[in-house]
Design goal:
By secondary structure, the chain is α/β, with parallel strands linked by helices. It folds into two domains: 300 residues, Zn peptidases (Aminopeptidase, 3-Layer(aba) Sandwich), CATH 3.40.630.10; 186 residues, Glucose Oxidase, domain 1 (3-Layer(bba) Sandwich). The longest helix is centred in the middle third of the chain and has 25 residues.
Length: 556
Protein backbone atom coordinates (compact mmCIF):
# COMPACT_ATOMS: atom_id res chain seq x y z
CA UNK A 1 0.00 0.00 0.00
CA UNK A 2 1.31 3.43 -0.97
CA UNK A 3 1.57 5.88 1.96
CA UNK A 4 2.49 9.57 2.00
CA UNK A 5 5.11 10.95 4.40
CA UNK A 6 3.91 14.49 5.11
CA UNK A 7 7.44 15.44 6.20
CA UNK A 8 8.65 15.03 2.61
CA UNK A 9 9.41 18.20 0.69
CA UNK A 10 6.39 19.50 -1.21
CA UNK A 11 8.07 18.99 -4.58
CA UNK A 12 8.57 15.28 -3.90
CA UNK A 13 4.93 14.82 -2.79
CA UNK A 14 3.70 16.58 -5.92
CA UNK A 15 5.91 14.40 -8.13
CA UNK A 16 4.45 11.29 -6.51
CA UNK A 17 0.92 12.48 -7.19
CA UNK A 18 1.74 13.14 -10.82
CA UNK A 19 2.90 9.56 -11.31
CA UNK A 20 -0.25 8.03 -9.79
CA UNK A 21 -2.85 6.54 -12.14
CA UNK A 22 -5.54 9.10 -12.95
CA UNK A 23 -8.27 6.91 -11.42
CA UNK A 24 -6.44 7.18 -8.04
CA UNK A 25 -5.97 10.96 -8.27
CA UNK A 26 -9.56 11.97 -9.08
CA UNK A 27 -12.57 9.72 -8.78
CA UNK A 28 -15.26 9.90 -11.46
CA UNK A 29 -17.93 12.42 -10.48
CA UNK A 30 -21.34 11.04 -9.56
CA UNK A 31 -24.52 13.12 -9.39
CA UNK A 32 -26.51 11.25 -6.75
CA UNK A 33 -29.27 13.84 -6.71
CA UNK A 34 -29.87 13.18 -10.41
CA UNK A 35 -29.72 9.42 -9.82
CA UNK A 36 -32.49 9.81 -7.24
CA UNK A 37 -34.60 11.80 -9.68
CA UNK A 38 -34.01 9.26 -12.48
CA UNK A 39 -35.02 6.40 -10.22
CA UNK A 40 -38.16 8.17 -9.02
CA UNK A 41 -39.29 9.07 -12.55
CA UNK A 42 -38.37 5.68 -13.99
CA UNK A 43 -40.13 3.57 -11.36
CA UNK A 44 -43.10 5.81 -10.51
CA UNK A 45 -44.17 7.21 -13.90
CA UNK A 46 -42.84 4.71 -16.42
CA UNK A 47 -44.31 4.48 -19.92
CA UNK A 48 -42.06 1.64 -21.04
CA UNK A 49 -44.77 -1.04 -21.15
CA UNK A 50 -47.09 1.14 -23.19
CA UNK A 51 -44.27 1.60 -25.68
CA UNK A 52 -43.27 -2.05 -26.02
CA UNK A 53 -46.87 -3.29 -26.10
CA UNK A 54 -47.67 -0.94 -28.98
CA UNK A 55 -44.59 -2.05 -30.90
CA UNK A 56 -45.25 -5.76 -30.34
CA UNK A 57 -49.04 -6.09 -30.21
CA UNK A 58 -50.26 -3.28 -32.47
CA UNK A 59 -47.49 -2.91 -35.06
CA UNK A 60 -46.35 -6.52 -34.75
CA UNK A 61 -43.39 -8.17 -36.53
CA UNK A 62 -41.06 -5.63 -38.14
CA UNK A 63 -39.03 -7.42 -40.81
CA UNK A 64 -36.56 -5.02 -42.41
CA UNK A 65 -37.98 -3.44 -45.55
CA UNK A 66 -41.56 -4.44 -44.77
CA UNK A 67 -44.44 -1.95 -44.40
CA UNK A 68 -44.61 -2.77 -40.69
CA UNK A 69 -40.93 -1.92 -40.29
CA UNK A 70 -41.43 1.52 -41.81
CA UNK A 71 -44.56 2.02 -39.71
CA UNK A 72 -42.55 1.31 -36.55
CA UNK A 73 -39.93 3.88 -37.56
CA UNK A 74 -42.57 6.53 -38.17
CA UNK A 75 -44.39 5.70 -34.94
CA UNK A 76 -41.23 5.88 -32.81
CA UNK A 77 -40.28 9.17 -34.47
CA UNK A 78 -43.70 10.63 -33.63
CA UNK A 79 -43.62 9.31 -30.05
CA UNK A 80 -40.19 10.81 -29.41
CA UNK A 81 -41.42 14.10 -30.87
CA UNK A 82 -44.45 13.99 -28.54
CA UNK A 83 -42.09 13.59 -25.57
CA UNK A 84 -40.22 16.73 -26.61
CA UNK A 85 -37.14 15.39 -28.38
CA UNK A 86 -35.50 17.62 -30.96
CA UNK A 87 -34.98 16.85 -34.64
CA UNK A 88 -36.80 13.50 -34.49
CA UNK A 89 -36.63 12.03 -37.99
CA UNK A 90 -36.04 8.86 -39.97
CA UNK A 91 -32.96 8.30 -42.12
CA UNK A 92 -33.11 5.90 -45.05
CA UNK A 93 -30.41 3.60 -46.35
CA UNK A 94 -30.26 1.24 -49.31
CA UNK A 95 -31.73 -2.14 -48.39
CA UNK A 96 -33.67 -3.93 -51.15
CA UNK A 97 -37.01 -5.66 -51.44
CA UNK A 98 -39.40 -5.86 -48.55
CA UNK A 99 -41.42 -9.00 -47.79
CA UNK A 100 -44.41 -9.99 -45.69
CA UNK A 101 -46.85 -12.89 -45.44
CA UNK A 102 -50.53 -12.91 -44.56
CA UNK A 103 -51.36 -16.63 -44.46
CA UNK A 104 -49.51 -19.89 -43.87
CA UNK A 105 -51.09 -23.32 -43.50
CA UNK A 106 -49.49 -26.73 -43.83
CA UNK A 107 -51.63 -29.86 -43.53
CA UNK A 108 -50.79 -33.51 -43.81
CA UNK A 109 -53.55 -35.12 -45.86
CA UNK A 110 -52.17 -38.66 -45.97
CA UNK A 111 -51.65 -41.06 -44.31
CA UNK A 112 -53.32 -38.87 -41.64
CA UNK A 113 -55.31 -35.65 -41.90
CA UNK A 114 -53.89 -33.11 -39.47
CA UNK A 115 -52.56 -29.54 -39.34
CA UNK A 116 -48.80 -29.13 -38.92
CA UNK A 117 -46.81 -26.31 -37.29
CA UNK A 118 -44.67 -24.62 -39.94
CA UNK A 119 -43.83 -21.07 -41.02
CA UNK A 120 -42.28 -19.66 -44.22
CA UNK A 121 -38.81 -18.21 -44.34
CA UNK A 122 -38.66 -14.53 -45.22
CA UNK A 123 -38.09 -13.52 -48.84
CA UNK A 124 -39.32 -16.84 -50.23
CA UNK A 125 -42.26 -16.95 -52.66
CA UNK A 126 -45.72 -18.13 -51.65
CA UNK A 127 -47.90 -20.71 -53.37
CA UNK A 128 -50.69 -18.32 -54.57
CA UNK A 129 -53.20 -21.11 -53.81
CA UNK A 130 -53.32 -24.40 -51.92
CA UNK A 131 -51.01 -26.96 -53.55
CA UNK A 132 -50.48 -30.65 -52.82
CA UNK A 133 -47.30 -32.63 -53.10
CA UNK A 134 -45.59 -35.84 -52.00
CA UNK A 135 -42.85 -35.58 -49.37
CA UNK A 136 -39.35 -36.73 -50.25
CA UNK A 137 -36.41 -36.81 -47.84
CA UNK A 138 -33.31 -35.64 -49.65
CA UNK A 139 -29.76 -34.63 -48.73
CA UNK A 140 -28.17 -32.13 -51.10
CA UNK A 141 -24.71 -31.21 -49.88
CA UNK A 142 -22.99 -30.01 -53.06
CA UNK A 143 -23.68 -29.28 -56.72
CA UNK A 144 -22.37 -32.74 -57.55
CA UNK A 145 -25.56 -34.14 -55.99
CA UNK A 146 -27.80 -32.37 -58.51
CA UNK A 147 -27.19 -34.68 -61.45
CA UNK A 148 -28.56 -37.75 -59.67
CA UNK A 149 -31.91 -36.08 -59.02
CA UNK A 150 -32.51 -34.20 -62.26
CA UNK A 151 -35.97 -34.83 -63.68
CA UNK A 152 -37.18 -36.65 -60.54
CA UNK A 153 -38.35 -33.84 -58.24
CA UNK A 154 -41.23 -32.11 -60.00
CA UNK A 155 -44.21 -31.59 -57.67
CA UNK A 156 -42.37 -32.81 -54.57
CA UNK A 157 -41.93 -31.26 -51.14
CA UNK A 158 -38.36 -31.83 -49.99
CA UNK A 159 -37.42 -32.45 -46.35
CA UNK A 160 -33.76 -31.46 -46.11
CA UNK A 161 -32.76 -32.17 -42.49
CA UNK A 162 -32.08 -35.33 -40.56
CA UNK A 163 -34.34 -36.25 -37.66
CA UNK A 164 -33.79 -33.86 -34.76
CA UNK A 165 -32.81 -35.21 -31.37
CA UNK A 166 -35.66 -34.90 -28.85
CA UNK A 167 -35.13 -31.57 -27.12
CA UNK A 168 -35.62 -31.71 -23.38
CA UNK A 169 -34.62 -28.70 -21.31
CA UNK A 170 -31.19 -29.50 -19.90
CA UNK A 171 -31.28 -26.26 -17.94
CA UNK A 172 -34.05 -24.08 -16.65
CA UNK A 173 -35.59 -22.35 -19.69
CA UNK A 174 -36.14 -19.19 -17.63
CA UNK A 175 -32.91 -18.04 -16.04
CA UNK A 176 -31.42 -15.12 -14.18
CA UNK A 177 -27.69 -14.68 -13.68
CA UNK A 178 -26.60 -15.77 -10.22
CA UNK A 179 -23.28 -14.74 -8.70
CA UNK A 180 -21.47 -17.57 -10.44
CA UNK A 181 -23.02 -16.65 -13.77
CA UNK A 182 -21.83 -13.09 -13.38
CA UNK A 183 -18.35 -14.18 -12.29
CA UNK A 184 -18.11 -16.37 -15.39
CA UNK A 185 -18.31 -13.22 -17.50
CA UNK A 186 -15.40 -11.56 -15.72
CA UNK A 187 -11.73 -11.76 -16.63
CA UNK A 188 -10.18 -11.45 -20.07
CA UNK A 189 -10.51 -13.83 -23.01
CA UNK A 190 -8.05 -13.25 -25.88
CA UNK A 191 -9.78 -12.29 -29.14
CA UNK A 192 -10.62 -15.16 -31.47
CA UNK A 193 -8.44 -15.56 -34.56
CA UNK A 194 -10.99 -17.61 -36.50
CA UNK A 195 -12.93 -14.98 -38.41
CA UNK A 196 -11.19 -15.80 -41.70
CA UNK A 197 -12.10 -19.49 -41.70
CA UNK A 198 -15.64 -18.67 -40.56
CA UNK A 199 -16.07 -16.29 -43.51
CA UNK A 200 -14.71 -18.85 -45.96
CA UNK A 201 -17.21 -21.47 -44.79
CA UNK A 202 -20.03 -18.95 -45.00
CA UNK A 203 -18.99 -18.01 -48.54
CA UNK A 204 -19.01 -21.64 -49.65
CA UNK A 205 -22.41 -22.16 -48.05
CA UNK A 206 -23.78 -19.02 -49.71
CA UNK A 207 -22.50 -20.02 -53.15
CA UNK A 208 -24.03 -23.48 -52.82
CA UNK A 209 -27.37 -22.06 -51.65
CA UNK A 210 -27.53 -19.80 -54.70
CA UNK A 211 -26.99 -22.78 -57.00
CA UNK A 212 -29.47 -24.90 -55.02
CA UNK A 213 -32.26 -22.32 -55.29
CA UNK A 214 -31.98 -22.22 -59.06
CA UNK A 215 -31.81 -26.02 -59.33
CA UNK A 216 -34.93 -26.59 -57.21
CA UNK A 217 -36.90 -23.96 -59.10
CA UNK A 218 -35.88 -25.39 -62.47
CA UNK A 219 -36.85 -28.89 -61.31
CA UNK A 220 -40.36 -27.79 -60.29
CA UNK A 221 -40.05 -28.47 -56.53
CA UNK A 222 -43.05 -27.09 -54.59
CA UNK A 223 -41.24 -26.29 -51.36
CA UNK A 224 -38.41 -27.25 -49.06
CA UNK A 225 -38.86 -27.91 -45.33
CA UNK A 226 -36.25 -27.90 -42.59
CA UNK A 227 -36.52 -28.59 -38.88
CA UNK A 228 -36.71 -25.87 -36.24
CA UNK A 229 -33.56 -25.50 -34.17
CA UNK A 230 -35.73 -25.38 -31.03
CA UNK A 231 -37.88 -28.22 -29.70
CA UNK A 232 -41.07 -28.41 -27.69
CA UNK A 233 -43.24 -26.94 -30.43
CA UNK A 234 -41.14 -23.80 -30.89
CA UNK A 235 -40.70 -22.71 -34.52
CA UNK A 236 -37.49 -20.73 -35.04
CA UNK A 237 -36.89 -19.36 -38.52
CA UNK A 238 -35.32 -16.44 -40.35
CA UNK A 239 -34.52 -15.52 -43.94
CA UNK A 240 -34.17 -17.45 -47.17
CA UNK A 241 -34.83 -16.90 -50.86
CA UNK A 242 -33.53 -13.60 -52.21
CA UNK A 243 -32.96 -12.19 -48.70
CA UNK A 244 -34.23 -8.85 -49.98
CA UNK A 245 -31.90 -8.51 -52.97
CA UNK A 246 -33.68 -8.28 -56.31
CA UNK A 247 -30.64 -9.58 -58.21
CA UNK A 248 -30.65 -12.88 -56.30
CA UNK A 249 -32.76 -15.91 -57.18
CA UNK A 250 -35.90 -16.24 -55.04
CA UNK A 251 -35.95 -20.00 -55.41
CA UNK A 252 -38.94 -21.94 -54.09
CA UNK A 253 -40.99 -21.62 -50.93
CA UNK A 254 -38.90 -22.49 -47.86
CA UNK A 255 -40.59 -23.59 -44.63
CA UNK A 256 -39.39 -24.33 -41.11
CA UNK A 257 -41.39 -26.93 -39.19
CA UNK A 258 -41.67 -27.73 -35.50
CA UNK A 259 -39.25 -30.52 -34.61
CA UNK A 260 -41.92 -32.89 -33.35
CA UNK A 261 -43.98 -32.68 -36.56
CA UNK A 262 -40.88 -32.83 -38.74
CA UNK A 263 -39.65 -35.99 -36.98
CA UNK A 264 -43.11 -37.59 -37.22
CA UNK A 265 -43.10 -37.25 -40.99
CA UNK A 266 -39.58 -38.67 -41.27
CA UNK A 267 -40.61 -41.69 -39.21
CA UNK A 268 -43.54 -42.29 -41.55
CA UNK A 269 -41.21 -42.16 -44.54
CA UNK A 270 -38.89 -44.66 -42.86
CA UNK A 271 -41.87 -47.04 -42.66
CA UNK A 272 -42.35 -46.61 -46.43
CA UNK A 273 -45.55 -44.66 -45.88
CA UNK A 274 -46.44 -42.20 -48.60
CA UNK A 275 -46.84 -38.74 -47.05
CA UNK A 276 -48.76 -36.01 -48.88
CA UNK A 277 -49.01 -32.41 -47.70
CA UNK A 278 -51.19 -29.49 -48.67
CA UNK A 279 -49.50 -26.10 -48.42
CA UNK A 280 -51.01 -22.65 -48.76
CA UNK A 281 -48.75 -19.63 -48.17
CA UNK A 282 -49.63 -16.12 -49.23
CA UNK A 283 -46.57 -13.89 -49.25
CA UNK A 284 -45.78 -10.60 -50.91
CA UNK A 285 -42.64 -8.85 -52.09
CA UNK A 286 -42.63 -5.07 -51.60
CA UNK A 287 -40.66 -3.32 -54.34
CA UNK A 288 -42.00 0.24 -54.20
CA UNK A 289 -39.36 1.40 -51.69
CA UNK A 290 -35.92 -0.18 -51.68
CA UNK A 291 -34.84 1.59 -48.50
CA UNK A 292 -35.04 0.68 -44.84
CA UNK A 293 -34.92 3.29 -42.09
CA UNK A 294 -33.41 4.36 -38.77
CA UNK A 295 -35.16 6.59 -36.22
CA UNK A 296 -33.02 9.42 -34.81
CA UNK A 297 -33.88 12.00 -32.11
CA UNK A 298 -31.93 14.32 -29.77
CA UNK A 299 -31.79 16.08 -26.45
CA UNK A 300 -29.43 18.90 -27.54
CA UNK A 301 -26.25 19.61 -25.63
CA UNK A 302 -25.77 23.01 -23.99
CA UNK A 303 -21.96 23.34 -23.93
CA UNK A 304 -20.73 20.89 -26.57
CA UNK A 305 -23.73 20.15 -28.84
CA UNK A 306 -21.42 18.69 -31.49
CA UNK A 307 -20.31 15.96 -29.06
CA UNK A 308 -22.74 13.02 -29.02
CA UNK A 309 -23.66 10.39 -26.45
CA UNK A 310 -25.71 7.86 -28.41
CA UNK A 311 -27.97 5.04 -27.22
CA UNK A 312 -29.83 2.52 -29.34
CA UNK A 313 -31.14 -0.89 -30.23
CA UNK A 314 -32.53 -2.53 -33.33
CA UNK A 315 -36.19 -2.01 -34.12
CA UNK A 316 -36.39 -4.63 -36.85
CA UNK A 317 -37.38 -8.22 -36.02
CA UNK A 318 -38.01 -11.54 -37.66
CA UNK A 319 -41.56 -12.51 -38.62
CA UNK A 320 -42.51 -15.66 -36.59
CA UNK A 321 -43.47 -13.67 -33.47
CA UNK A 322 -44.02 -9.99 -32.75
CA UNK A 323 -40.44 -8.99 -31.97
CA UNK A 324 -41.17 -8.24 -28.31
CA UNK A 325 -37.91 -9.53 -26.79
CA UNK A 326 -35.84 -9.19 -29.96
CA UNK A 327 -35.71 -6.30 -29.86
CA UNK A 328 -38.83 -4.30 -29.09
CA UNK A 329 -38.23 -4.43 -25.33
CA UNK A 330 -34.75 -2.91 -25.63
CA UNK A 331 -35.97 -0.19 -28.00
CA UNK A 332 -38.72 0.66 -25.51
CA UNK A 333 -36.08 0.82 -22.74
CA UNK A 334 -33.91 3.21 -24.74
CA UNK A 335 -36.93 5.37 -25.61
CA UNK A 336 -37.95 5.37 -21.94
CA UNK A 337 -34.45 6.49 -20.91
CA UNK A 338 -34.82 9.45 -23.28
CA UNK A 339 -38.30 10.18 -21.90
CA UNK A 340 -37.02 10.11 -18.31
CA UNK A 341 -34.22 12.57 -19.04
CA UNK A 342 -36.50 14.90 -20.97
CA UNK A 343 -39.15 14.75 -18.25
CA UNK A 344 -36.47 15.81 -15.74
CA UNK A 345 -35.53 18.71 -18.02
CA UNK A 346 -31.85 17.78 -17.96
CA UNK A 347 -29.44 20.25 -19.56
CA UNK A 348 -26.64 17.95 -20.72
CA UNK A 349 -23.28 19.34 -21.74
CA UNK A 350 -23.29 17.02 -24.76
CA UNK A 351 -26.09 16.05 -27.11
CA UNK A 352 -27.89 12.87 -26.05
CA UNK A 353 -29.13 10.98 -29.11
CA UNK A 354 -31.17 7.85 -29.69
CA UNK A 355 -30.83 5.63 -32.76
CA UNK A 356 -33.34 2.84 -33.44
CA UNK A 357 -31.85 0.73 -36.19
CA UNK A 358 -33.29 -1.41 -38.94
CA UNK A 359 -31.48 -4.18 -40.83
CA UNK A 360 -29.70 -5.51 -37.73
CA UNK A 361 -30.88 -9.06 -38.37
CA UNK A 362 -29.39 -8.92 -41.88
CA UNK A 363 -25.93 -7.88 -40.68
CA UNK A 364 -26.07 -4.69 -38.55
CA UNK A 365 -27.02 -2.77 -41.69
CA UNK A 366 -28.83 0.17 -40.07
CA UNK A 367 -26.18 1.06 -37.51
CA UNK A 368 -23.49 0.48 -40.13
CA UNK A 369 -25.27 2.91 -42.47
CA UNK A 370 -25.45 5.52 -39.70
CA UNK A 371 -21.75 5.16 -38.93
CA UNK A 372 -20.80 5.39 -42.60
CA UNK A 373 -22.97 8.47 -43.14
CA UNK A 374 -21.89 10.40 -40.04
CA UNK A 375 -18.73 9.00 -38.46
CA UNK A 376 -16.40 6.86 -40.59
CA UNK A 377 -16.41 4.64 -43.62
CA UNK A 378 -14.09 2.35 -45.52
CA UNK A 379 -13.09 2.16 -49.20
CA UNK A 380 -15.58 0.41 -51.46
CA UNK A 381 -14.41 -3.04 -52.47
CA UNK A 382 -13.78 -3.60 -56.18
CA UNK A 383 -13.44 -7.37 -55.84
CA UNK A 384 -16.23 -8.98 -57.88
CA UNK A 385 -16.31 -12.07 -55.66
CA UNK A 386 -16.79 -9.86 -52.60
CA UNK A 387 -19.49 -7.76 -54.27
CA UNK A 388 -21.45 -10.92 -55.07
CA UNK A 389 -21.69 -11.75 -51.35
CA UNK A 390 -24.16 -10.37 -48.79
CA UNK A 391 -22.70 -7.28 -47.14
CA UNK A 392 -22.06 -8.93 -43.76
CA UNK A 393 -19.93 -11.66 -45.38
CA UNK A 394 -17.54 -9.31 -47.15
CA UNK A 395 -13.99 -8.82 -45.93
CA UNK A 396 -13.33 -5.46 -44.34
CA UNK A 397 -11.45 -2.95 -46.47
CA UNK A 398 -8.76 -0.60 -45.20
CA UNK A 399 -7.96 2.04 -44.13
CA UNK A 400 -10.75 3.38 -41.92
CA UNK A 401 -11.67 6.87 -43.17
CA UNK A 402 -12.88 9.04 -40.24
CA UNK A 403 -15.35 11.84 -40.96
CA UNK A 404 -15.57 15.20 -39.23
CA UNK A 405 -17.88 13.94 -36.45
CA UNK A 406 -15.60 11.01 -35.58
CA UNK A 407 -13.37 13.13 -33.35
CA UNK A 408 -16.25 14.66 -31.36
CA UNK A 409 -18.23 11.44 -30.87
CA UNK A 410 -18.22 10.30 -27.24
CA UNK A 411 -19.88 6.89 -26.78
CA UNK A 412 -22.57 4.47 -27.93
CA UNK A 413 -24.56 2.24 -25.53
CA UNK A 414 -26.54 -0.67 -26.98
CA UNK A 415 -29.21 -3.00 -25.61
CA UNK A 416 -30.06 -6.25 -27.40
CA UNK A 417 -30.11 -9.43 -25.31
CA UNK A 418 -33.84 -9.83 -24.73
CA UNK A 419 -35.99 -8.25 -22.05
CA UNK A 420 -33.99 -9.18 -18.94
CA UNK A 421 -32.80 -6.61 -16.42
CA UNK A 422 -29.33 -5.11 -16.76
CA UNK A 423 -26.69 -6.78 -14.55
CA UNK A 424 -23.61 -4.93 -15.77
CA UNK A 425 -21.75 -3.99 -18.93
CA UNK A 426 -19.04 -5.33 -21.26
CA UNK A 427 -16.07 -2.95 -21.61
CA UNK A 428 -15.23 -4.40 -25.05
CA UNK A 429 -11.51 -4.74 -24.14
CA UNK A 430 -11.39 -1.03 -23.18
CA UNK A 431 -9.76 -1.12 -19.74
CA UNK A 432 -9.82 2.68 -19.42
CA UNK A 433 -13.62 2.73 -19.09
CA UNK A 434 -13.76 0.05 -16.37
CA UNK A 435 -13.30 2.37 -13.34
CA UNK A 436 -15.73 4.86 -14.90
CA UNK A 437 -18.46 2.25 -15.37
CA UNK A 438 -17.83 0.80 -11.91
CA UNK A 439 -18.36 4.24 -10.41
CA UNK A 440 -21.62 4.79 -12.32
CA UNK A 441 -22.91 1.41 -11.15
CA UNK A 442 -22.36 2.15 -7.45
CA UNK A 443 -25.83 3.65 -6.78
CA UNK A 444 -27.43 0.89 -8.89
CA UNK A 445 -26.14 -2.16 -7.01
CA UNK A 446 -29.43 -2.55 -5.15
CA UNK A 447 -31.14 -2.88 -8.56
CA UNK A 448 -28.88 -5.83 -9.47
CA UNK A 449 -26.56 -3.90 -11.82
CA UNK A 450 -23.13 -4.64 -10.39
CA UNK A 451 -20.53 -6.00 -12.80
CA UNK A 452 -18.10 -4.58 -15.36
CA UNK A 453 -16.16 -7.10 -17.41
CA UNK A 454 -13.15 -6.40 -19.60
CA UNK A 455 -14.46 -8.98 -22.07
CA UNK A 456 -15.98 -8.18 -25.44
CA UNK A 457 -19.26 -9.38 -26.87
CA UNK A 458 -20.50 -9.50 -30.44
CA UNK A 459 -23.48 -10.04 -32.68
CA UNK A 460 -25.19 -6.67 -32.41
CA UNK A 461 -25.03 -2.96 -33.24
CA UNK A 462 -22.29 -1.75 -30.88
CA UNK A 463 -19.85 -3.48 -33.25
CA UNK A 464 -20.57 -0.93 -35.99
CA UNK A 465 -19.00 1.72 -33.74
CA UNK A 466 -16.27 -0.43 -32.22
CA UNK A 467 -15.02 -1.45 -35.67
CA UNK A 468 -14.18 2.16 -36.57
CA UNK A 469 -12.39 2.96 -33.31
CA UNK A 470 -15.32 4.49 -31.41
CA UNK A 471 -16.43 3.48 -27.88
CA UNK A 472 -19.38 1.13 -28.32
CA UNK A 473 -20.76 -1.01 -25.50
CA UNK A 474 -23.41 -3.64 -24.84
CA UNK A 475 -25.01 -4.20 -21.43
CA UNK A 476 -25.01 -7.57 -19.64
CA UNK A 477 -28.59 -8.78 -19.14
CA UNK A 478 -30.39 -11.62 -17.41
CA UNK A 479 -30.95 -14.19 -20.17
CA UNK A 480 -34.49 -15.08 -19.03
CA UNK A 481 -35.89 -17.42 -21.73
CA UNK A 482 -34.37 -15.45 -24.61
CA UNK A 483 -31.96 -18.02 -26.02
CA UNK A 484 -34.03 -21.04 -24.95
CA UNK A 485 -37.44 -19.95 -26.25
CA UNK A 486 -37.99 -16.53 -27.81
CA UNK A 487 -34.95 -15.69 -29.96
CA UNK A 488 -36.23 -15.59 -33.58
CA UNK A 489 -39.22 -17.82 -32.72
CA UNK A 490 -43.00 -17.77 -32.72
CA UNK A 491 -42.85 -17.30 -28.94
CA UNK A 492 -41.26 -13.86 -29.21
CA UNK A 493 -44.33 -12.06 -27.91
CA UNK A 494 -45.24 -9.62 -25.16
CA UNK A 495 -46.04 -12.51 -22.80
CA UNK A 496 -42.28 -13.00 -22.32
CA UNK A 497 -41.56 -9.40 -21.26
CA UNK A 498 -41.28 -8.53 -17.54
CA UNK A 499 -42.35 -4.98 -16.71
CA UNK A 500 -40.10 -4.49 -13.67
CA UNK A 501 -37.06 -5.60 -15.65
CA UNK A 502 -37.70 -2.98 -18.33
CA UNK A 503 -38.16 -0.25 -15.71
CA UNK A 504 -34.87 -1.24 -14.07
CA UNK A 505 -33.05 -1.27 -17.42
CA UNK A 506 -34.35 2.19 -18.34
CA UNK A 507 -33.15 3.61 -15.02
CA UNK A 508 -29.68 2.08 -15.49
CA UNK A 509 -29.40 3.36 -19.07
CA UNK A 510 -30.59 6.86 -18.14
CA UNK A 511 -28.02 6.99 -15.33
CA UNK A 512 -25.17 5.97 -17.65
CA UNK A 513 -26.25 8.33 -20.40
CA UNK A 514 -26.60 11.31 -18.08
CA UNK A 515 -23.15 10.88 -16.56
CA UNK A 516 -21.54 10.30 -19.98
CA UNK A 517 -23.13 13.52 -21.22
CA UNK A 518 -22.01 15.52 -18.17
CA UNK A 519 -18.42 14.38 -17.63
CA UNK A 520 -15.59 16.81 -18.39
CA UNK A 521 -14.04 14.66 -21.11
CA UNK A 522 -15.14 12.37 -23.92
CA UNK A 523 -15.12 8.67 -23.10
CA UNK A 524 -11.69 7.00 -23.38
CA UNK A 525 -10.99 5.18 -26.64
CA UNK A 526 -9.02 2.11 -27.54
CA UNK A 527 -6.29 2.42 -30.19
CA UNK A 528 -7.65 2.86 -33.71
CA UNK A 529 -8.13 -0.53 -35.42
CA UNK A 530 -5.39 -1.41 -37.88
CA UNK A 531 -5.34 -3.78 -40.81
CA UNK A 532 -4.32 -7.21 -39.53
CA UNK A 533 -1.14 -8.74 -40.97
CA UNK A 534 -1.52 -11.17 -43.83
CA UNK A 535 -1.75 -14.74 -42.60
CA UNK A 536 0.58 -17.42 -43.79
CA UNK A 537 -1.24 -20.29 -45.44
CA UNK A 538 -1.51 -23.31 -43.18
CA UNK A 539 -0.10 -26.61 -44.29
CA UNK A 540 -2.52 -29.27 -45.40
CA UNK A 541 -4.16 -30.92 -42.44
CA UNK A 542 -4.04 -27.79 -40.26
CA UNK A 543 -7.26 -27.04 -38.45
CA UNK A 544 -8.39 -23.46 -38.13
CA UNK A 545 -12.08 -24.20 -38.04
CA UNK A 546 -14.50 -22.51 -35.65
CA UNK A 547 -17.19 -19.87 -35.74
CA UNK A 548 -16.64 -16.23 -34.95
CA UNK A 549 -16.84 -15.50 -31.25
CA UNK A 550 -20.30 -14.17 -30.46
CA UNK A 551 -22.26 -13.23 -27.41
CA UNK A 552 -23.83 -16.59 -26.82
CA UNK A 553 -26.31 -17.32 -29.56
CA UNK A 554 -27.39 -14.13 -31.27
CA UNK A 555 -26.72 -15.12 -34.85
CA UNK A 556 -27.91 -13.27 -37.92
Amino acid sequence: MLRFNFLLPLSIAVSLLVTLPSCMVAQEELDLDMVNRIREEGFQRSEVMETVSYLADVIGPRLSGSPQSKRSQEWTRDRLTKWGMSNAHIEGFEFGEGWSFSHASVHMISPHATPLMALPKAWTPGTKKAVKGKVKRLSLESEEDFEEHKGKLKGTILFLDDEAEPSEWENEPFKRLDEQGLEDKMGFNPPSDRRGSFRKRMMKRFEFREALKKFLKDEGVIATVDSSSRGNGVVRTGGGGSRGKADRHRGVLELTMAQEHYNWILRLLERDKEVELEINVRSQFHTDDNQSYNTIADIPGTEHPEQVVLIGGHLDSWHPGTGATDNGAACAVMMEAMRILKALDVQPKRTIRIGLWSGEEQGLLGSKAYVEQHLADRPETTDEEQLALPEFMREQTWPIQPKADHESFSVYFNLDNGGGKIRGIYSQDNVAVVPIFERWLEPLHDLGATHVTTNRTGGTDHLSFDRVGLPGFQFIQDPMDYFTRTHHTNLDTLDHVVEEDLKQAAVVVATFVYHAAMRDELMPRKPMPQKPPEKKKKKKGGDDEGPESRRGGHNH
